[in-house]
Amino acid sequence: MKPMIYYGILKSYKGVFKKKHVGNTHQFFVPINQSEVAALVIIGKITTEKVYVAALLDYVKIENVQAVLDTYEKEGKNWITLESLPCKVKSSADNIYHISLLKKGNYIKSDFIIEFKPEFSTDNRVLFTLKGNFDFEVGDISNQTVGMTSNKMMAKLGAMKKVKS
After folding, report:
1. Which residues touch 105 (CB under 8 Å, ≥6 apart)?
2. Which helix (H) or strand (E) segment is 157 a member of?
């Protein structure tokens, strides 16, 4: 089984009668060795370019990752897995993980490094830094949105054909 990295978002809304999209929580499932995957949530960006801080949610056995993602999508209507990419992982003794992508993605644009940061971590929270080129999804996205966008484009193209004839 090839190691895979997964990127997904949890969409946040506010409002009782009319829901308004207020943002996305970005989550990664990154293999850290042959048997485990780290579930990480982006919690901020360091002022340095392309360096993000992520909190560790939990470690998941590599064979259970797909079941966890399926549960997220079935039980949480606001969860979308946006990308899954094959990768290679090299780890060092000082908790630095070099993630090499076999194929670049739409959101994960480059190979990246995950590094454990004990100076940022507390007893309750384990923090890592992610150094790489990412294009995080910030808007409200859904399968319906994709369909509506294609319908609008088709309508515009139809209108353009009428004008030309």
Report:
1. 7, 83, 85
2. helix 143-164
User: Measured between alpha carbons, how far is 113 from 148 in angstroms, rounded to an integer?
Assistant: 37
pTM recorded for the entire structure: 0.77
Q: Which residue type does 125 have? A: R
List the chain domain ranges.
Answer: 4-140
Q: Is 144 a residue whose pLDDT tops 80?
A: no
130 Cβ partners below 8 Å, 6+ apart?
28, 40, 42, 51, 52, 53, 54, 112, 113, 114
62 DSSP 8-state letter: G
- Beta strands 36-45 and 112-116, pairing class: unpaired
Is residue 122 scored above 90 in pLDDT? no
Q: Among all chains, which residue has been given the structure tokens 């060795």?
A: 33
